[in-house]
Amino acid sequence: MKHLLAWGVSLCVLAGSAQANLLTNGDFEDGPTQNTGDGVPGWSTWGFSGWHHDDAGQTLDTKAIKFWWDDAGIFQDFTVTGGDTYDFSVQVLNASTDPLVGWNGLIKAEFYNSSIGTDPSDALANVELQRYFSASDPIDQWVEIGGSLQAPAGADIGRIVMLIVDWQSTGVSGALNFDNAVVTPEPGALALLMIGGLVALRRR
Question: How far, in Å, CA of 120 to CA of 200, rounded?
């Protein structure tokens, strides 16, 4: 009985560890404050219309990312298993001190097979998960955007992408802050079965 209980506890620990964030520096705390185009530890970036900053009142901890034009963005790759489902999320803040106007925030999920390539043109899946709408979503409060997506068969790399989009010719200004990006795998059926077995053991 003790061996069975220890086995069940070990399985629960493994299942819990599977929920750890798959991203490195997802809270953007590592690295100096500088233009995102100059690099953010753990992340890949493009363009120079972004800042890795520590602006008071615009971070969840001490640092965050902001973008003010759609020619810049940030992404990170992580290992996945084809057929598994992954949850993507990021917190965004539209601050009234520099309000985003004429743009929307976007989080995307992409999946790749490394033997084919990781250029966006090689993506097995490229999905816009959710937008932050500057014209209607809350201002001066952190809002979570994201979603869940199943990795296609053959995928071994996942990618989270964040940027601002939807340029509006009526006028654009301001910036949107991104912080605490998270990707976690959803519990597999086997892990759930194991947890159920532990519950049954505890009832005996």
Answer: 47
